[in-house]
Amino acid sequence: MENSKDIEQRAVRVVTVDLAVAAIILALGALVVYESVRLGAKWGADGPEAGYFPFYIGALICICGAAVTVQSLLGLKSDRATFVTYEQFKLVLVVLLPTIAYAVGVWMVGIYVSSILFIALFMKFAGHYSWLRSAAVAGPVMVAAFLMFEIWFKIPLPKGPVERLLGF
To answer: Model pTM?
Structure first.
């Protein structure tokens, strides 16, 4: 059984993150190359085809991704540097996961309802404020945002079923 000190010392190594980033870079470069070839990456009778220049950019991206991969693999055994500990990563997730949920919420139910929920829940669970204080901040902030954007500046923001039900 692991003790809490072992768990706290676990970490993601820099080399691991480098390899993951290199894989992403290679995949994006390969996608650019593939799409460039699909569009036409040759020199045509009237000059370069649509994918000619993007093809070479994609190829350079792939070369860079391969270079990062080789560099990371060479340091795999010797490089023990820590990129992030699991405790630090948990702190990142405390912000990242609610933000992703908020973005999905804006798409599904509009910005105002999602923002009220995001502010109130974030204050309650990340900031450890009371439900009353969380609601007392979230509601007025979104009323102010609604008045400012929708009424005064006439800038429509993403709306959901609640706003449509209220006639906005």
So the answer is: 0.64
